Amino acid sequence: DGVTEVLAHRSHSLRDKFIEIPCSEDYDSHKRFEGCTPRKCGRGVTDAVITREEAERIRRIAERGLSLGGSDGGASILDLHSGALSLGKHFVNLYRYFGDKIQDIFTEEDFALYRDVRQRIQQRIAQVFGISSSAMYLTKPTFFSRMNSTGAKTTHDEYWHPHVDKVTYGSFDYTSLLYLSDYSEDFGGGRFVFMDADSNKTVEPRAGRVSFFTSGSENLHRVEKVQWGTRFAITISFTCDPEHGIGDPVL
């Protein structure tokens, strides 16, 4: 894998760390949106936007939702926007499948916290990249992930392949991850790895830590396989194209 450099250790509390890198050409083939499409690219990590206590509350939302289903393989997904929930080897729509029972699982406070956290992350990304927060739109997929060491049963369980978000999803311009559990304490493996030509740069998850980056080929990345324990995170994605925008989830 070449040289590995740790960008963010779990044991360090980082106020703000940002590394600027040249933008790839991925944005040239898409429509450009003034005041939003990246002119400067890079990756950042901060432990100063979301508290550990908030991350724990968010994790409990994920745990309650995922307790209704879960994949047969190592990676389970819960998307509060579309309702997609891993169930065995497939996905179901949480809202249709469970109907009114959903009211017993989630509260209005859960959704308000989710919204608040999303807004703070959006504002931090806008600030760091020098763009307008109001020119960014939440886009899909934005989802919780729960990963453990169970072997993959379908391609959806193979989360460890290197990929570029803009190539995979098209609409993504900025990607963020909020970690909801601690590397080396709650799980082993499962670090986030930026794959650069000269070396790998890793982010060790820590509850409340936000990692964010421009979604083009300048940020090719992967997640290491989880070796033990359970890793929780939420991926929150943003687009500059209002046509690809989605709303916050509502109960």
UniProtKB/TrEMBL annotation:
InterPro entries associated with the record: OGFOD3 (IPR039210), Oxoglu/Fe-dep_dioxygenase_dom (IPR005123), Pro_4_hyd_alph (IPR006620), Pro_4_hyd_alph_FE2OG_OXY (IPR044862)
Gene: Ogfod3
Descriptive protein name: OGFD3 protein
Gene Ontology cellular-component terms listed: membrane
Cofactor list: L-ascorbate
Organism this protein belongs to: Eulacestoma nigropectus (wattled ploughbill)
Every Fe2OG dioxygenase domain range: 140-242
GO molecular function: dioxygenase activity; iron ion binding; L-ascorbic acid binding; oxidoreductase activity, acting on paired donors, with incorporation or reduction of molecular oxygen
One Pfam family matching this protein: 2OG-FeII_Oxy_3
UniProt keyword Iron, yes or no: yes
Keyword field contains Transmembrane: no
